[in-house]
## 1
Amino acid sequence: HHGSGTSSTPDFLAKVAPSLAIFQVGHRNRYRLPQADVYARYEKMGIGRLRTDEAGAVVLRFRLGVPDFEQTSYRQHHARYWQGR
């Protein structure tokens, strides 16, 4: 999801009931997505959020027969040198 204002209405999100949203966002994107109100909507509904412009590559690991998944991101394990550890 990129975070535009028309693709994630509250009714849609309530029916789908996601536990995590990954916003595919380029650094300094010219469209300024995700829109602030859309991003806040996910938070208000208790949906976890990751932004690729902040997290880098996102990895989801699923196990057969297990409904939950493990999430990690590139920058979680490879912080930029100026951010320290």
## 2
Amino acid sequence: METDRADLERAIAFEDWVGDQLIDKRVPFPGGLGLFATKFPVIWDANKLLVQEASGMTAEDLAAEAERLHSAEGHEHRAISMSDPDLSMTYGDEFAELGWKVDRFVVMAHRGDPPPLSGDTEVHELTAEAMRDVRSKVIGEQPYGQKPEVVAQLLDIDVVLRDAIAIRFFGASTGGTIGSICELYSDGKTAQIEDVATLKEHRKKGLARALLAQVLDLVYREEHDFVFLVADEEDWPKDFYAGMGFVPIGRYQRFLRPGGVDFVSE
């Protein structure tokens, strides 16, 4: 559908705009740019090669460029994204054969009316300090949460983004304790819901559902005309989001040789 394609391009452009707020070093290579956030060297998605024009380059060619540029930055990981989602979908097998990890993402746009609000769960807009406290607990439940430098960089990303774009923090509570959180990025018309996460002890209580319903109600009342999120194609949350009115509008792939960590906490 033409609408889905236009919305996919809008979503990717918005993601690129948000990500650019972290980038302070750009290094050209044949076919694209190395994008690096030198304050956050272990964060995969903030330190990557962006392929803008493959020009017949194979995955092996791109991997060699990644090795050269990431090595020069002292990174443990190697990461490659592509500005054209359709192009990214053609390289999966090649990178898999090289032993790289192929991450598959689905871009989902909200369609229709927001789901009904829950009267049983309190949803709050959080201060940056309150969000940092809960997010540190969420990160601590992840395998990478045992590395102090990783935790610090993941938390500090919010500080940089808060100073650069309109970012807001929300939490749903039960018994007076915040158990589920998310972030909202906005330019006034486009809104991206990001980093939806629920602490293990508070799962299966309907907190994330109540949280998303409240945030969706808010963005529509504030007259945003496009709301989207990005989910892992191979994980269950995409089905949860579908039940909240989000529909797939496109897919893309990212290629990794891991080391360090992504800042997506789902």
## 3
Amino acid sequence: MQCKFVKKLRIYSIMHSFDSFIKRLEKSLAGNLPGQYSQYKLAPLVRKDQMRKIKDPSAGTPSGVLILFYPENEEIIIPFIRRPRYDGVHSGQIAFPGGKYEKDDKNLRATALREAREEIGIDPSGIRIIGELTSLYIPPSNFNVLPVVAYSESIPEFTIDPAEVDHMLKFSIREILNRKSLTKKGISMSNGMVFNTPCFLIRDQVIWGATAMMLNEMIDVIRMPGY
């Protein structure tokens, strides 16, 4: 009986902490966002040069990605995907689930939810959207991406589409917020180009480029004064 009581108390504590985290996050997302200032801190040097030359980033292909929080094993988790190897600019990269807007999508929030369902099987009915980050233009693919922030109160049932996802990764907020995860790495591109870039290095997994830029803004929102 005591063991069951302790287990129920622990579950209540986890969910209470998660609920508090989400409420604070939703409030912060409704305020002034750090925006490009946060994003550019994790931008590769070549990306900064490319973006300076773009006259109208909003002219890029409208796209949406889903940044999803959920509780698991006393941690708050964000799922990521690794793209398959292919002949393209984002081959093999770690990313948030997402993709380009389609005409049947009501808006970019719907795009993010649809893409997350198609890529990793997330049921949209169990997801609640709480806000958005700053749109980010990605020059190599000409995408203008809206990061949509949401949560699930339980662990989603994941089903991976192997045509779009090599495998899924799950990182905790504790790992992501660890300042030691920020570093610089040499990245080798499919065209043979090698360059150093700021990135997140978590359990030997490198998150760089647009995903790192969006993630860094998310981190700065979480670290906002009064959060």
## 4
Amino acid sequence: MNQINNGNTEQGFAEFNKLPTWFFDVVFTGGAGLISPSGTAQTTVNLEPGKYVIECYVKMPNGMFHSAMGMLAELDVLPANNNRRKPIARDTITISSELGIAFKDEIQPGEHTFAVNFKDQIAHEHFIGHDVHLVRLKDENSIKDLNNWMNWADPEAFKTPAPQGVEFLGGTQEMPAGNTSYFTVTLTPGNYALIAEVPNPIDKNMLKTFTVPQNGVLEK
């Protein structure tokens, strides 16, 4: 990342080829979506027994990953079943590389549990897969900045703070094809977006705006 941040993009990405071979067997299994300061996110995933890593790869203003600053922890999932049931989803979101983000176009104020179905999964230009984040748009003019900010591989993007006029409310990180993750959020009237953390999500149909109305139905 130091190479990339110093403008040596080709040399910087070449360093990723020096990662140990076991890294390429890592399976990304979901997690909480992006959340703005002072917020709380609730995401539910089903984890098989094994060893996991929780990390944050948002970047500092100088380009350093948060994980390199200490936002990294190991998690052991034990074989014992905790007997918890999957949440009851009020709304469903489907994401795929071919069709982008698809969801029901009637969303009322109140608490919602979204089921996010990963129809497929691919490695995009920034080497990782697609996911889903929920954003409240305080300023609709911020959509272009938000679209450009979502690509971690851009030396100038994915840095704190996030673009002005947006508030991240959670969501889910990438998962393999066929998996489902759940996130719960309370929505108040206003303008929102569902967006994937991929390069140029607008062109991939992975940035969808919607409105939670005072009364009536959503306006796309």
